[in-house]
Amino acid sequence: MLRSLLGEPPRENEGLLKDAIDAMVQLTKLLQKETELHKDPTHDFRKLEIWTLGLIASLDELEQCLHAASFFRKKVVHDSEQDMDPAERGDYARYVFFYKDGFIRVFATLDKLGTVLNELFDLKTSKVKAHFSYFTVLRQFRYMKVHMELGDRLVAIKEKYKEPLALLRQRRNTEIHYMNSEMKDDLWQRHQTLHGKIELEDLDRHLHDLEQGYLMVCETLEASFSYANQRWKKVSGR
Prior knowledge:
Blueprint: H1 2-5, H2 15-38, H3 44-73, H4 86-120, H5 134-144, H6 148-160, H7 162-178, H8 181-193, H9 203-236
Helix pairs in contact: 2-3, 2-9, 3-4, 3-9, 4-5, 4-7, 4-9, 5-6, 6-9, 7-9
Domain Cthe-2314-like HEPN: 51-229
Organism: Paenibacillus vini
InterPro entries: HEPN_Cthe2314 (IPR041394)
């Protein structure tokens, strides 16, 4: 969608994105077969199918945010808003919008995955915490000593992206709970420079962190759904 608005051709899924989406699509097909066979009187299969389709949409939206943020970042050439003309200032504002939307979607997508994993593997996370996050669900694998192969793989992915994920979480928390993250940067720089120009945050570093968060989400989804597909086929005998 965003690529068409930016005058670009549609995206062709490849790499980690394709692997993650393919794994999720495969599970939806397995769930549809189960519904056809057993009529799904409790609607459990249909619910998981809808949740998985929602995750595909969430990953698609996250990738689009990263792409759009990168697109508008290239149009920002000055290091301070005070040096920008109105057109560049507008492009910077668009970069900020999609960058912030992106890092919020990183954690929103992970939390949605946590809900699916909790249901798929009966992890009973709500007994630990009523409103749980993906990371709470992740701890349940080890606490309950179930599906340790998947749990260990997901922990390894989390550790691989530990640093950028921590930075993104800090900015997400600032954005949601305190003040706009770029305002926090402005206040700190105003304190340092007093009457000087306020320089922009490190746009390239921030985009790199967002890309790392996106890759972490892709790897996590691919690992989760590949494992779920293997288990489902093994249990069902198909």
